[in-house]
Backbone:
């Protein structure tokens, strides 16, 4: 800074005391007498930055640099403003200019590290952070930026150490607590993540990112009311961010407030009309409410989401829109889980009527069942070579093609079948006697994001064991033996789950049962698609396909639904099932 006049000293004193209006007026008085006063231009630019007027801030500092380009602090603050507006490469250039003026300046090295990380160059960011910490071991910001670089490189353990060191040096570094929360969140250590986000918010209650992520942790922990409160507080903070509206919508949807969820999604799309994640969530809310005409159209956004990136494929042929194919082959390819494939396989005969040849690609365990559906000419196990085809369509896009609604829903079952000889092979394995033979499943796949939410577990279902006149048959594939032994029920069920090689085996066993009881899993879909009686256990708010409040399903006429009356409590569901099962067996 050049020589400081008394007038400039007074303005700076106001500035340091955060009396920004008085400071700005003082700088303007100086500039009225001397329009080329570089320090006043620079400091007035800083006030504009503090007031969120970023264009004016850059304009003032650029004028100062044009007058005197050899003052390092001008370039440093210019870099910080550029970084704040997301112009990270330009910010890196500004910090580089500082280093040319003051070689080895630790603060500039640290700032350059942060800009490089934000610009997508974490290796360079790490290099500059290391240099900064070598020159200034007690600089918290340098260790913090080192943590950011290591995090971007997915080096979680050293990143954690860097943030912890930064906090040791500066306990009031809210951003350090926030980043530790992010690491714990990534590791699904939700308790630790919550603690770190709360620490960040205690220091800086206005940190919207920490408030939003705290909401995400609470939602993942099924504390939905608290999550909603966090998202609402984040929005009240003045930053009307689309992602926060979307997160709020998801939490409201999981509470069962679908109208509130749609309102939140619409608010998000008003800010970001092309956000695929929001469109996908909105589709599920619409479908759950039975608003199928809007829902199927929105559902097509799923292919543009990060969630679907892993299964998105570059198809060389166009997606089928339902028009008749006079010649050629239609390839229908399965997506998502086994249950989804089973549910929407009902559309294959309808598609076959409009095409010359229909080929289905599906997971190998389902291939045998798909091959027996009317109109299917060939089945390809997923991963196998594809045939020549003229058009293709994901299986879950078929409902939209056929304009499905509650009045025209196709074939509720049975639309899957197995050979009589195959069913006969399993007849003795399902038990003998005159009582009811009831197949049971108690949990879904561990890979499902909400498996804990949707699965009661065997211990919760323990009271179904021993109902007079009922013989229970385990259809549980995963962890069957472990769970039965843990519940002291190993010898109280006929155990078949571990014997199933594919869904044809499961279907054959189901054909020999009087009833299947299951949570929202592929086995429930399979029983419904076979037209067999099935009792479905659902959480208080379920997936979109089961809609709301109904105790039946338009998708499966043979299905009866038992829903939780309060979130997380399976007791009433199991007790109602036990009572009805006892009455059925007695009669």
Residues:
């Amino acid at each position: 800074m050049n020589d400081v006049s008394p007038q400039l000293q007074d303005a700076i004193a106001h500035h340091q005391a955060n009396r920004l209006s008085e400071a700005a007026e003082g700088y303007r008085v100086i500039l009225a007498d001397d329009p080329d006063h570089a320090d006043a231009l620079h400091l007035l630019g800083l006030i504009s930055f503090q007031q969120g007027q970023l264009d004016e801030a850059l304009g003032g500092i650029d004028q100062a640099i044009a007058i005197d380009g050899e003052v390092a602090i001008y370039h440093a603050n210019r870099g910080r403003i550029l970084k704040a507006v997301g112009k990270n490469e330009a910010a890196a250039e500004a910090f580089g200019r500082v280093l040319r003026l003051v070689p080895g300046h630790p603060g500039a090295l640290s700032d350059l590290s942060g800009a490089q990380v934000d610009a997508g160059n974490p290796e360079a960011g790490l290099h500059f952070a290391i240099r900064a910490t070598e020159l200034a071991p007690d600089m918290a910001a340098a260790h913090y930026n080192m943590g950011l670089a290591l995090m971007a490189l997915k080096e979680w353990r050293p990143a954690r150490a860097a943030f912890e060191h930064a906090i040791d040096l500066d306990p009031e570094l809210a951003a350090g607590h926030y980043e530790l929360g992010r690491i714990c969140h990534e590791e699904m250590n939700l308790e630790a993540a919550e603690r770190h986000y709360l620490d960040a918010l205690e220091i800086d209650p206005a940190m919207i990112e920490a408030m939003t992520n705290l909401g995400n942790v609470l939602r993942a922990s099924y504390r939905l009311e608290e999550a909603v409160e966090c998202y609402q507080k984040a929005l009240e903070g003045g930053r009307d961010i689309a992602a926060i509206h979307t997160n709020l919508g998801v939490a409201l949807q999981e509470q069962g407030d679908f109208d509130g969820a749609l309102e939140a999604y619409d608010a998000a799309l008003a800010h970001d009309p092309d956000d695929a994640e929001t469109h996908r969530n909105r589709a599920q809310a619409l479908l759950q409410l039975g608003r199928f005409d809007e829902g199927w159209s929105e559902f097509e956004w799923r292919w543009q989401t990060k969630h679907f990136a892993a299964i998105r494929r570059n198809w060389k042929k166009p997606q089928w829109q339902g028009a008749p194919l006079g010649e050629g082959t239609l390839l229908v390819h399965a997506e998502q889980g086994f249950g989804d494939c089973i549910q929407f396989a009902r559309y294959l005969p309808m598609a076959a009527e409009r095409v010359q040849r229909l080929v289905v690609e599906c997971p190998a365990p389902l291939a045998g069942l798909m091959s027996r559906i009317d109109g299917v000419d060939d089945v390809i196990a997923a991963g196998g070579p594809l045939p020549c085809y003229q058009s293709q369509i994901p299986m879950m896009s078929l409902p939209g093609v056929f304009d499905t609604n509650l009045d025209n829903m196709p074939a509720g079952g049975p639309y899957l079948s197995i050979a009589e000889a195959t069913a006969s092979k399993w007849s003795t394995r399902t038990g003998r006697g005159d009582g009811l033979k009831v197949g049971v499943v108690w949990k879904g796949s561990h890979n499902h994001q909400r498996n804990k939410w949707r699965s009661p577990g065997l211990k919760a279902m323990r009271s179904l064991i021993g109902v007079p006149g009922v013989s229970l048959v385990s259809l549980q594939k995963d962890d069957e033996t472990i769970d039965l032994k843990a519940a002291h029920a190993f010898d109280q069920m006929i155990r078949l789950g571990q014997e199933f090689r594919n869904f044809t085996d499961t279907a054959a066993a189901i054909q020999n049962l009087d009833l299947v009881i299951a949570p929202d899993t592929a086995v429930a879909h399979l029983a419904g698609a076979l037209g067999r009686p099935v009792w479905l256990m659902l959480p208080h708010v379920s997936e979109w396909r089961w809609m709301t409040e109904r105790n039946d399903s338009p998708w499966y006429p043979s299905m009866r639904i038992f829903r939780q009356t309060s979130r997380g409590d399976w007791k009433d569901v199991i007790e109602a099932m036990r009572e009805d099962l006892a009455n059925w067996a007695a009669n």
The first strand starts at residue 325 and ends at 333. Residues 464 and 578 are 6 Å apart (CA to CA).
